[in-house]
């Protein structure tokens, strides 16, 4: 199925006539010819190399090249996303060949990879220097405070030694007399460790060294960028004092295990200041270099974004062209490619003109030969639709694609689907809300069609015209039901009923009398709120549902007649269509007649009693249930016809099919050579000579038995299934009434603005969430079931396959 742009008059009743064509294309013209056919989009190629793997085909190398270019374009797309640059829809630059594009993409990829690698190295060095400066500053502060504290303690000790205080340590003189070269020197390791690992880091250090280390930590105020991961991490600056090489080795291993970054440190204050100055200078230089590199990288990405769409489309087209060329086979001379495929009959002249243009543009001396083939293979199904009809056709195709030139239910679905939906959803207030919401989608369809929408929004946008028709029919049905958010209005005049006397105050309890002509259109508003509202509406909607169901099922059976007539199948007309029409209308057509007669005459006859005793006691008199003269004899005749119709459907058809099979193949066991066109292929020629398949009479009888039982039982169940129209209409009306009376009116009764506002908010959300969303979806699904099961199973086989032409417009954006 295709959308728009079709030259012939749109005829959705039958699919377009198709033909199998063979193209003999010179090699020098092949690429351009396939490209032009892709632009035309009306030729479906058959794979003539199905037995070959993708790697054994002729153009596997070119497809690999296109795949590599597509990978580079995906890399460019990631870079554009990283730079927050969107691709331009307008094409920039001159048209280039595929080889030039391949070379250019390679150069740009190499340049971007090199720039990214350099930027990563510079950023890594910059982050390391930032951490190093933090270590120098934090540990410098620790050492300065420790040195000041040590100096103060030393002065106090010297003062005590001079004064000879009794509080001075006993070993102080011995300690001061010891040679400083014999003092134990402590080593230290400094760096940064993630804050969330700091406690475990301290605990493991203590256990591994048995407490023979001293750890000092200080938290960093703001998160820092980790040089390894490139992520912002909260860290602590630490310094670990240890004694001996063995302890140092353990400390280094633990630091590596916890991802702690180590940096060198000196206890010399002068060197500390000098190192801080050097690190700050290097940071300034690196920052300048990184900014310049990022500016250059952004310019390159910006340049790519101007031509990205053009390059992407070119690569997609080339890849699809070579995929199609791989479906073609070589002729015996190896100088031409042979293609076979399906195309619509109306497109023959267009395809010929396209191929002639390809020959001229390729400067080829030999033109492309187009040959029409005869085939017994079923052609694909192609309906030429537009944006309005495509949604309804998709509803049918979801059940099954129509067999080639089978009667298409999509024509009737355009009207019957929204109409049955509206029967269940009828409320002109809700219909207007649905209409306005759909109108926004239609007015902004150009904007939405170029955007990526969510799954639900995408579904609603795709079916915008379906929802539009549903809303229009819902408004119409709402006028029939006279309901706007469950409230009746006197839109078409005043009510035909009034109080029986002037003292009447409560019309719902005392009663009404008819005082003027019947309300001109739809349901009289006085029925709403009366004691007899529910019985009256139940009776009306139930009978209306049966009438609509019988009409639609009859339409399905009538379409089966047109199918049989089109395919020249007289057996189905005489032994399927006629008995089905007789059986359905003898029972439920008669019921529909009784409903209409009862409405017209105002009779009090019990239709349940009539239909039940039509089978149980057909010879009894009808008495009070007689609606017209001769009804008893009419019922006897209809009952007899219904009983006759069952064996009429069941018995003759298998025997006639067997006779037809024998006559078709009588005396055709042998045929002269050359009786078949070599173009037909083995699958089409092999079925009409040689060993014919034996007619499976038993299978045909079983199939016909199943089909007959299914129709007989289905006539009852399908008619009952249409009562869902009554049930859902009643549910929608009662829900709407509950929300109106128990929420909005209840809040209105209170003399409080707050309660009124809350009531309005609850009413709006309940109306939108339940009635406009859930009820819409429910009615949609029930209408879908009525079309798929009750309507289409009467005539629609749906065992075909769609026409999927080679077209650049059908290539997906995510095709790789």
TrEMBL record:
Biological process, per Gene Ontology: vacuolar acidification
Annotated membrane topology: Multi-pass membrane protein
Highest rank taxon of the organism: Eukaryota
A Pfam family annotated for this UniProt entry: V_ATPase_I
Compartments, record wording: Membrane
Stretches the record annotates as Disordered: 670-690
InterPro entries: V-ATPase_116kDa_su, V-type_ATPase_116kDa_su_euka
Sequence ranges of Basic and acidic residues compositional bias: 670-679
Coiled-coil annotated residue ranges, if any: 98-125
Keywords of this entry: Coiled coil, Hydrogen ion transport, Ion transport, Membrane, Transmembrane, Transmembrane helix, Transport
GO MF annotations, alphabetized: ATPase binding; proton-transporting ATPase activity, rotational mechanism
Function: Essential component of the vacuolar proton pump (V-ATPase), a multimeric enzyme that catalyzes the translocation of protons across the membranes. Required for assembly and activity of the V-ATPase.
Similarity remark: Belongs to the V-ATPase 116 kDa subunit family.
Protein name as annotated: V-type proton ATPase subunit a
Organism from which the protein derives: Tagetes erecta (African marigold)
